[in-house]
Amino acid sequence: MSSVTAALTAVGVTNQLSLKPGESAKYSVTGTFTGFVNLERSSSPLSSFATLVAGAEDTGISGTVTNETKTSQWFRFRATTLGSGTALVTLAENAAVVRTPTDLDSREDLATNGDAATAVGLDVYQTHLGTSGSGGAEDLTIGDGTGAVIGQRKLIVLDTLGDAADSVTLDDENMSKGTSTITAVALDAAGEFILLEFQGVTWEVIKATSGVVTTS
């Protein structure tokens, strides 16, 4: 786990701490000093930072920050005024809670349909699908990660098609694939699969059958 510590005696900034989506860190400013020390955040650390937590005059601050965005964020302290004394600052990354399935054979079998979306279960590693034969797209949802924890993986496999024209469309609003933008996720042939990992804010695509994930 990464951390930033410093003893500030003059106006200036500290080193930066980077947090990936879903990661968090505890911050604190202590010591005896006159002035202000702020906590800053940036999504583009080479260009600019903005104040995230404004310091109180001659007073320390503390709390927890969480990266709730879909990209990495950088954090640092800035002493905007420091007339005397020393401000002791700490920014320490919290340990991530990771759940790795203990039973990779745990599975559920779901039947999708053309009338309503079918929800994926998060308490098993594998979800195996069969379509109803509606002759069109049948919706499957994995959601925003509520009920999942960082590091949890999910394997989704299309086993059988009720009709050759069937396909299973997975909600992609909370999915990511590196720096690419996902525009669609669809399984339309028996044997196709997608493997996802929850990274705190998004489900990252780890691997998928060619053509399942469309990006721009």
Question: How does the SSE layout of this entry go?
Answer:
Blueprint: E1 3-8, E2 12-13, E3 17-19, E4 24-30, E5 33-44, E6 48-53, E7 62-66, E8 73-85, E9 87-93, E10 107-111, E11 118-119, E12 126-130, E13 137-141, E14 153-160, E15 167-170, E16 175-176, E17 182-187, E18 193-198, E19 203-208, E20 213-215
Q: Give the number of DSSP strands.
A: 20
Tell me, rounded to a whole number, the average pLDDT: 91
Straight-line N-to-C gap: 33 Å
Structural domains: how many: 2
Strand order of the largest sheet: 10-12-14-18-19-16
Oligomer: single chain
Helix content bin: under 10%
Which stretches are low in confidence, meaning pLDDT under 50 for 5 or more residues running?
A: none
How would you characterize the largest beta sheet?
6 strands, mixed
**H and E string:** EEEEEEEEEEEEEEEEEEEE
Rounded to the nearest angstrom, the radius of gyration is 23 Å
Q: How does the overall form come out from the CA principal axes?
A: elongated
Structural class: mainly beta
Tally of separate helices: 0
Report the β-strand fraction as a percent range. Answer: over 45%
Q: Could you please describe the fold and organization of this structure?
A:
The chain is mainly β and 216 residues long. The protein has strands at 3-8, 12-13, 17-19, 24-30, 33-44, 48-53, 62-66, 73-85, 87-93, 107-111, 118-119, 126-130, 137-141, 153-160, 167-170, 175-176, 182-187, 193-198, 203-208, 213-215. The protein folds into two domains: 3-93, GOLD domain (Jelly Rolls, Sandwich); 107-215. The chain has no helices and 20 strands. The two termini are 33 Å apart.
